[in-house]
Write a structure and sequence with these properties.
Layout (H helix, E strand, L loop, with lengths): L3 E3 L2 H9 L6 E5 L13 E5 L8 H13 L5 E3 L1 H7 L3 E4 L10 H8 L7 E4 L5 H14 L3 H22 L5 E9 L2 E3 L1 E2 L1 H7 L2 E2 L4 E2 L5 E2 L1 H6 L4 E4 L6 H10 L7 E5 L1 H4 L7 H12 L13 E3 L2
Parallel strand pairs: 1-2, 1-5, 2-3, 5-6, 7-10, 7-13, 9-11, 13-14
Antiparallel strand pairs: 3-4, 7-8, 8-12, 14-15
């Protein structure tokens, strides 16, 4: 049986979606889905304690640490060595999301047996699908990965067909609230598939700072508040503090579950957006309600 360590929540979700969850032996502090993974030992933690900090304070602290070249995460190198992983899942897309490749390379350099290190760095839905296939190959679940990708593509096709008959909704998606950050990477594509258009989004690129005038001038019908790293409750709290935009309906959503993590549940994120944009055309089939209308 393989021994897998994941430094990335999206990677952890992929492993479970492919039926290899029992082969996970270590995780990052942020890997929390499915709930069973919280029993696994933690191999990486943030170097800064920002649990109770405001979005503005978090942005400042992260910017200062990145500007100085300091790491944002610490790796428990002794534990990682003792876990003897065959496969390690990490990323090089965002230094705020997980340890960088350089940090992990240093950590495993002296291991007597070198694990396979798989870097998951998607910027689009197609690249997320590619990551699923790559993880499938690395953990011996190729058929399961191919089936999952096919299923996800079919679900996206159903959404696309359902919303095609309705006008596009003009949307602004916020990945952070203080300062404001637009939607980037795979998020603008999710919005497009769901029957919306975000004039401020940056498909396939990093999100960037904006100000409230940028949001107002975009004349959105819908604003999605999805601060990276937060669950629904915190998103609601932050959305209620924002300046209102005339004519816009504002929804807070569970960012971690459906938008911030480029894993299998991104497809559910598209279904969620399509339901918010076109509720008469797309039904949300799940019991949970991972959004709240703010005003």
């Amino acid at each position: 049986m393989l021994r897998i360590v994941s430094f990335l929540p999206a990677g952890t979700e992929m492993v479970h979606a492919l039926g290899a969850g029992s082969e996970l032996v270590g995780r990052s502090h942020e890997c929390d889905y499915p709930a069973s993974v919280t029993r696994l030992p933690i191999v990486s933690r943030p170097a800064l304690d920002l649990d109770d900090a405001s979005p503005e304070a978090i942005d400042l602290a992260v910017a200062q640490r990145m500007g100085s070249g300091d790491t944002l995460y610490t790796i428990d190198e002794v534990l990682l060595r003792d876990l003897q992983p065959d496969v390690i899942l990490t990323q090089n897309l965002c230094r705020v999301c997980a340890p960088s490749g350089d940090e992990l390379t240093r950590a495993v350099r002296k291991f007597s047996r070198q694990p396979e290190v798989l870097f998951l760095t998607p910027r689009s839905i197609a690249e997320i699908e590619g990551n699923i296939l790559d993880v499938g190959r690395a953990v011996g679940r190729v058929e399961e990965a191919e089936a999952l990708v096919r299923s996800n593509q079919e679900r996206l096709s159903i959404v696309r067909a359902a919303v095609a008959r309705d006008p596009l909704r003009r949307v602004v998606f916020l990945e952070w609230t203080d300062p404001l950050f637009c939607g980037g990477h795979w998020v603008p594509e999710m919005i497009s598939l769901a029957g919306g258009e975000d004039p401020l989004g940056r498909p396939g690129e990093d999100s960037v700072r904006m100000d409230s005038d940028d949001v107002a001038n975009a004349r959105p019908e819908v604003i999605i508040v999805s601060p990276c790293g937060y669950r629904l409750e915190r998103s609601i709290e932050l959305a209620r503090r924002m300046r209102r935009v005339s004519g816009a309906v504002v929804y807070a959503v569970d960012a971690n579950a459906y938008f911030a993590r480029p894993g299998p549940r991104v497809v559910e994120g598209v279904e969620l957006l399509a339901h918010l944009f076109h509720p008469d055309l797309v039904h949300w089939p799940h019991v949970d309600r991972p959004w709240e209308r703010i005003y």
